[in-house]
Design brief:
six-stranded mixed β-sheet; 30% helix
């Protein structure tokens, strides 16, 4: 059975992004399939992480390790991720999102994603 749009939003926003924003990378990674195709280019430059070539991984464990190594920097940056507008059909979708900084500044990004068996199987984020 294919996830509904509401289930996709819950998986990505509540489990994945809210997990990252709270520093709970185990929770964030639990949204991902074991063999996720994950690619992320930096949206908000902080702590030496610049907007450059994307990072890419092909397993949940690799993504969790990548995120876990950044818990302290993300907490200090005080940024939050949120979905703004999403389109979704038959397990595939895209959305415009925003990274919000502590002073209210926002930076937009775009994500293509796929969901299979209730987990994110493909996740590609690019800043706008």
């Amino acid at each position: 059975m294919t996830a509904t749009r509401d289930e996709a939003i819950n998986l990505i926003q509540t489990t994945y992004y809210d997990g990252i924003d709270s520093g709970d990378m185990v929770r964030a990674a639990s949204a991902l399939a074991e063999d996720v195709d994950w690619s992320h280019a930096q949206v908000w430059a902080h702590h030496g992480f610049a907007r450059a070539e994307p990072s890419g991984f092909s397993s949940r464990a690799e993504v969790q390790d990548f995120l876990s190594a950044r818990v302290e920097q993300l907490a200090e940056a005080k940024i939050r991720h949120r979905i703004d507008t999403m389109v979704y059909e038959d397990g595939k979708g895209a959305f415009l999102g925003l990274v919000e900084g502590p002073g209210g500044e926002t930076k937009p990004f775009f994500v293509w994603f796929e969901i299979a068996d209730g987990k994110i199987s493909r996740y590609t984020l690019r800043p706008l």
